[in-house]
Amino acid sequence: MVNWTRFTSLCLLLVLGASVLAETETEYLAIFMEGKKVGHAVHTRAVEGEQVTTSEDVSITISRLGIPITVQMRETSVETTAGKPLRFESVQLLGAMTMKVSGVVGDDGMVAVTAFSFGTEEKSTMPWPEGAIMAEGLRLLTLEKGLQQGTEYTASVFSPGTMQAVVGHVSIGAKKEVDLLGRVVMLTEVTTTLSVPSAGQIVTTSYVDDDMGALKSIMPIAGMQIEMVSCPKEFALGDNDVLDLIDRMIVKSPETIDDMESVVSIRYTLNPGQGADFVIPSTDNQTAERTADGKIDLLIKPVTAPMGGTFPYKGSDAELLEATRANRFLQSDRKEVVELARKAVGDARDAAEAARRIESFVADYIENRDLSVGYASAAEVIESRQGDCTEFAVLTAAMCRAVGIPAQVVVGIAYVKEFAGFEGFGGHAWAQAYVGGDEQGRGGKWIGLDAAFKASDRGGHDAGHIALAVGDGEPGDFFNVASALGQFTIEKMDVHRTK
Fold it and tell me: What's the CATH class of domain 260-497?
């Protein structure tokens, strides 16, 4: 099942619903999911000279099949007192893995990024998203707009944790009675509609006092309501309840699918519900189209791997070249990854055959298959030989890239007839590799590789896999999936089998 890296974006949501603090102030919030306290958040703002430092700390502990996992995140932004972005930092403790990303915004609009994970440091550059602000810029904008009912405005807010800007449309509503852990007060309702890339819209509701202090925020993630409530430090940092969320990651199937290996394709009818607006990507293995009634007609038909393709890839296609490069999760240039990939490929010369060998190798390589790992990079998986579907996916993709086969990490849902007493489509991750075609890659196809399913004797990638996002394994991809879960149902399936 997809792990809990998606909750890194709670830092962004905390910024959007944060109180307007004065100099050197700290605010504590308790985080609730399904009515149970699962963690805390701390919002701090400090002014020194002409610079403002804002920090958002989030800690959440959840359980998956009785195995507790704690995710901790800290995002820090440094801006001028006028709200100009200067630098940022994000530290994420995801189970066994610690990731740190920092950036310095230059006067030329370029950001010098330093990423640190698993003992290695990588430097890169990226353009600052046009018009994006961070915590202090949003605070100033909030003060300027005020709380007059009917006021509306839009802000583009950059999140260091996901390394992307999210557009939020803010609408000021009326005053309402709000329950704050047993204390009822009159607060102004503020609705923020987030436009998340590849995930559509998320509506967050905050309740603020006359001093612009956000005392309560409610947001949907993965079909659940998450509440953040301002409270005394002792309660916020106190003990948490135990909440097992594995059943929340299951999308109900309209029918049972037997003998999946004989299934050639499945046509799904997805109902995104009223007002939902998210994108189901079309790939070589699936085609999605909106129907006149707002539903999604989705055809999943896994392609047959074209033979005759060579590797390493020597073409010039930008997408394919990007899919061969190393990054902080897919460290395909690390010695241990390269050596393992070459061992897996052996004497294979055909790209499709090499990719399949890597899939089978990873299926056997990861020995401890459990849910105790929050999120691990390919290099960490090689060392620990432990993890769930995400670890299988990142290692498969990294090993493909290590031998020059373009590969990506796919996140979505996949059909399981039985998993911990559940049947349906559960959150999942797998890989896809580009094989076949000529030396320039023309005529090739993206084929699905699911080492986790293969390890569990479930065959691998099949028509029961619905992709919701495709990328390099960055946390933002997982957040996008979390945003989509709970926004749609599967109304109908038309299963086609071999005769």
Answer: alpha beta
